[in-house]
Design a protein that fits this description.
Elements (H helix, E strand, L loop, with lengths): L8 E4 L8 E4 L4 E2 L1 H5 L6 E5 L6 H9 L6 H6 L1 H6 L5 H11 L3 E4 L13 E4 L5 E8 L4 E4 L10 E6 L2 E6 L2 E4 L4 E5 L5 E2 L7 E13 L4 E8 L2 H7 L4 E12 L12 E6 L4 E6 L2 E6 L2 H19 L9 E4 H10 L3 E5 L4 H17 L4 E5 L5 E5 L1 E2 L1
Antiparallel strand pairs: 1-2, 3-24, 4-21, 5-8, 5-11, 6-7, 6-9, 7-8, 9-10, 12-13, 12-20, 14-15, 14-16, 16-17, 17-18, 18-19, 22-23
Helix pairs in contact: 5-8
Length: 377
């Protein structure tokens, strides 16, 4: 590697050998590039393309592959975490790092489904072992790739008791939610029991008796307010309204609304879901249960699309991809002064080997300037 070409040699004992071997001193560190890496007269930016290698960039910019090491020293993130991966390599790595199955549930997991427990899907018959839980997101991580079914109940035996939970969705681990962000890209907490149904009793809606549909654009808190807005053959009905709440505790505007109406004529409770007439029940609790079951079916069918309107879900895959792409713009030493920097770097190595004190390297050929650098071990 050209980076070590002029580095000093030391006696080094490999393994249990009695005689030393003359070897490059790998502990040496030259801080020259550290001193110039923030000098705008020295560097410019280069945008990497997918799959670009350091030696290719060195060849393209400087006409030789020998200066690829300057790219590492000039960019702290690359130096610490490595060269950005190509998309295919990044995808392969994250699939290897997060190979398991994640079950999503709105059930409370505080005292059940502990790590190490074996669970079984009552519909699919699939079994698996819990590797970890993320209670803040309602996630159960199952070892390996398992084909559990969304909407099914899983069960396990813990402390001689059978525990159960309903699974809303099943995703691969790398596609599961790592966190949510607000519009400023800050991490935010969410409600792991959401989405859930919110019941609002004693509300008022305008009902069109001709089409048997409600005007759902406005939900009124008082009958007088509703009467003010009614037109034509509309009538004001006092109802209980059911709405779906997301993980940010906001109403999901795209979700259907549920309505139960106490029909004094038939002495029944009429149900409406997504403004379609449903079954009438003689008991208010049965009508409410019917509406909630319809919402549960809607949640299972649309779970992957139900996200807080003002929050952005970030998956493990998204997070790794974003971190990888953040390294695609790198600093590079300007081609017209690269030789000055390399010569100065080599001079520091050669001169410091004989003189351990800090030395001053001056180069004014192309404005590189004067700087003081040291060789450290």
């Amino acid at each position: 590697m050209s980076y070590f070409t002029n580095f000093p040699q030391i006696d080094y004992f490999f393994g249990d050998k009695v005689k030393p071997t003359r070897f490059t001193d790998l502990h040496v560190y030259i801080d020259l590039i550290d001193q110039i890496k923030d000098d705008v007269s020295v560097y410019t930016y280069y945008n990497l393309q997918d799959g670009d290698r350091p030696d290719q960039i060195s060849q393209k910019l400087y006409g030789t592959t020998d200066y690829h090491w300057t790219l590492y020293l000039l960019n702290d993130d690359v130096r610490l975490h490595g060269w950005p991966l190509s998309y295919n390599d990044m995808k392969e790595k994250i699939e290897e790092d997060y190979p398991n199955t994640v079950l999503l549930t709105r059930n409370n997991l505080d005292n059940k489904f502990k790590v190490g427990t074996k669970v079984r899907g009552l519909t699919s018959g699939v079994e698996g072992t819990i590797l970890k839980r993320r209670l803040d997101f309602g996630q159960i991580v199952i070892q390996g790739t398992k084909s559990f079914t969304a909407g099914e109940i899983i069960s396990a035996t813990e402390n001689d008791s059978v525990v159960t939970a309903t699974i809303d969705a099943v995703v691969t681990e790398y596609n599961s939610i790592h966190h949510y962000e607000d519009d400023s890209a800050r991490y935010v907490d969410v409600d792991p029991t959401a989405p859930f149904v919110q019941e609002s009793e004693g509300k008022f809606l305008l009902f069109d008796s001709g089409t048997s549909t409600y005007d759902l654009t406005t939900i009124y808190s008082t009958s007088s307010a509703a009467n003010t807005d009614k037109t034509g053959i509309e009538v004001v009905r006092e109802v209980d309204v059911f709405r779906l709440i997301d993980k940010n505790n906001d109403v999901i505007s795209t979700a259907p609304l549920g309505v139960t109406f106490n029909n004094s004529v038939t002495e029944e409770f009429d149900t409406y879901f997504d403004n379609s007439v449903g079954t009438s029940y003689s008991d208010s609790a049965d009508a409410t249960t019917s509406i909630k079951n319809l919402f549960d079916n809607y949640i299972v069918t649309n779970y992957n699309d139900i996200e807080p309107a003002l929050l952005t879900p970030v998956t493990y895959f998204d997070r790794v991809r974003k971190e990888n792409e953040s390294k695609f713009q790198i600093k590079v030493i300007k081609p017209d002064i690269i030789e000055d920097v390399i010569n100065s770097f080599n001079n520091v190595v050669l001169e410091t080997e004989e003189n351990p004190d800090p030395i001053v390297i001056t180069n004014g050929q192309k404005g590189l300037g004067t700087f003081k650098t040291t060789l450290r071990t």
